[in-house]
Design brief:
about 220 residues; mainly alpha; Four Helix Bundle (Hemerythrin (Met), subunit A); 9 helices; about 65% helix; about 5% strand
Length: about 220
């Protein structure tokens, strides 16, 4: 099978470029959950050796986007409803901490960056670009994580959330979700952050990541 996003690379031994190509193919849903990823096949399509492909797959595994099983190969991560809900529960507690730390560190630069992500998200919702909306959603939260000033917390959230974002993005695309609440829910978060009020921020992030806020049809096994 030929994957459109995997046009041959211009040069060899570029694991970073291979990683980005494969990551984007997973995020966009071109690589479906459970799909087998064969090193030799990917290397041939990208016109590189298997070494950068293997390195890229290791990076994707570190992010939780693929699962590598000895003697069985590599597949795109497929999450069950139970796994997503458990990950969301852990994420909620970590995000509460990140947002509380960021509350006193939101400067003009951070505010402008958050506004840019909201504006871009609005445009992508209108275009029904599920991949793009998920990416801007992720970048919005990443901005807050960085603003927290806690690098360990930032990296932990990054690793925990990237697989969930990719999987939910694919599910939204598959079920034709309209993304109608994406901008509204993040606007509420943004407004709460701008108050610098810890209590209001805590309420906003808990509502944003509450189990009932995750659409049931996105969590089917």
């Amino acid at each position: 099978m030929t994957i459109k996003s995997l046009a041959p690379l211009r040069s060899v031994s570029k694991s970073r470029e291979v990683f980005l190509r494969l990551r984007d193919a997973i995020w966009s849903g071109e690589f479906q959950p459970g799909m087998a990823l064969r090193e030799s096949h990917l290397a041939k399509q990208l016109s590189v050796s298997q070494v950068p492909v293997r390195e890229a797959l290791l990076q994707l595994e570190h992010l939780g986007l693929v699962v590598r099983v000895p003697d069985r190969g590599t597949t795109v991560t497929k999450l069950t409803r139970k796994e997503i809900l458990q990950m969301m529960d852990v994420r909620r507690h970590l995000e509460e901490y990140a947002f509380s730390l960021a509350a006193d560190k939101i400067d003009k630069g951070v505010e402008a960056e958050l506004r840019r992500h909201l504006a871009q998200m609005k445009e992508l919702v209108a275009a029904k670009d599920h991949f793009g909306v998920a990416e801007e959603d992720f970048k919005f939260h990443q901005t807050v994580w960085r603003a927290s000033g806690n690098e360990v917390l930032e990296k932990t959230l990054q690793r925990l959330c990237v697989a969930v974002y990719a999987f939910v993005s694919m599910r939204r695309h598959a079920v034709g979700d309209g993304l109608s609440t994406a901008v509204k829910s993040h606007t509420v978060l943004f407004q709460a952050l701008m108050t610098r009020d810890p209590a209001k921020i805590l309420i906003a992030i808990r509502q944003h990541l509450a189990p009932e806020a995750v659409e049931p049809n996105l969590l089917e096994d």
